[in-house]
Amino acid sequence: MPRLCLILFGPPGSGKGTQAKLLRQSLGIAHISTGDMLRERVASGDGLGQEAASIMQSGGLVPDEMVNRMVEDRIEQPDCEKGFILDGFPRTVSQARLLAELLKSKGINPLVMHLKVDYNVIVSRLSGRRQCPTCGALYSVTSNAPTVSEVCDYDGSKLVIRDDDRPEVVRERLRAYERQTEPVLEFLKGAGYAFGEVEGADASPQVIAGRIETWIRGQKGTQEEAGQGR
């Protein structure tokens, strides 16, 4: 049976990382965050990691081909045997094209899920985040507030708003996300992959994950029926 590949899209603050972790547990598949993967490869000091570290230290962007090579290596690890979730990848049409070739060569037909969240909700959510400058603990003024307002529970430091959580910065990040990902989503739709969308802020994370899982199981059933009909 082909491995499950879920390409999970969602703007900053949509809860994409939370959904990936929940789905990893319920589906028993790997969660691949390309940011985490890149940091792990750099830390490992292997050939690709050293090459990526050199590029990043000089202020450059890691080329799409190199990221794809890392993804190719990663999906062959034992924890990806049943399937994997791609979180934050592909980010560009070039990456999407390379990924499509890679998956086709392995007989994997991916599923694409887009988490939709009203941008005003995201701005409110992210601008309500606070961080301890000493220990790094994160708080939310609405859902995970500190015991004493604006003071860290662990070390008593005054909490701060991170620069990238300021409303004007959040809005620009969302505009950049839209510019970058819209053509990627259009490419993936045009490639004929199953494409789904789910509201990412109208229920608890667990309920939203359940909706995504139901959709995935329905798509897998359709794929299996199509395979039997050949």
Q: What does this entry look like structurally?
A:
With 230 residues, the chain is α/β, with parallel strands linked by helices. It has one domain: 3-Layer(aba) Sandwich (Rossmann fold), CATH 3.40.50.300. Helix content is 50%, strand content 14%. It is built from eight helices and seven strands, in the order E-H-E-H-H-H-E-H-E-H-E-E-H-E-H. Strands 2-3-1-4-7 form a five-stranded parallel beta sheet, sandwiched between helices. Helix 1 packs across helix 8, helix 2 crosses helix 4 and helix 6 packs across helix 7. It is globular.
In short:
The chain is of the alpha/beta class and 230 residues long. 50% of the residues lie in helices and 14% in strands. Helix 2 packs across helix 4 and helix 4 packs parallel to helix 5.
Using brief descriptors, characterize the structure shown.
single chain, 230 residues, alpha/beta, Rossmann fold, five-stranded parallel β-sheet, two-stranded antiparallel ribbon, 7 strands, 14% strand, globular
